[in-house]
Specification:
By secondary structure, the protein is an all-alpha fold. It has helices at residues 3-24, 30-50, 56-79, 85-104. Residues 109-124 have low confidence and may be disordered. It is a multi-pass membrane protein. Keywords: Cell inner membrane, Cell membrane, Membrane, Transmembrane, Transmembrane helix.
């Protein structure tokens, strides 16, 4: 697994933690309430690093899709939110969509993962 995929997985983990923290601090002081916002910012920063190599459609689908699945699991475990059969089917559909998007990106467009795009290589 490449460095950029590990960074993307870290971005997902931070997003899940941030969202769970956001629910936890609803009635806390404003100072504690800032922590989830900082974590969400960190998640976006990590996502931006992953986007240097991973195609945008794949990175965003994985980041958001696994984030949704992870948040649903965290809600079930930490907050007793129900995972009904219908919700589990919906989460499985999200995962299937991620696989389909990943399988379709980079085929025939010359943007294989790891290939430099014309805009890459220039540092601003």
């Amino acid at each position: 697994m490449s460095f950029h995929w590990l960074v993307l997985l870290a971005a997902i983990a931070v997003e899940i933690i941030a969202t769970a923290a956001l629910k936890s601090v609803v009635s806390a002081s404003w100072l504690v309430g800032v922590l989830p916002l900082l974590l969400i910012g960190l998640s976006f920063a990590l996502l931006s690093v992953a986007l240097r190599v991973i195609p945008m459609a794949v990175a965003y689908a994985v980041w958001e899709g696994l984030g949704i699945v992870g948040i649903a699991a965290a809600g079930h475990v930490l907050f007793g939110e129900h995972l009904t059969p219908g919700r589990m089917v919906a989460l499985a559909a999200i995962l299937a969509g991620i696989v389909l998007i990943e399988a379709g990106v980079g085929h025939g467009g010359g943007e294989e993962e790891g290939e430099a795009l014309p805009s890459e290589g220039r540092h601003v």
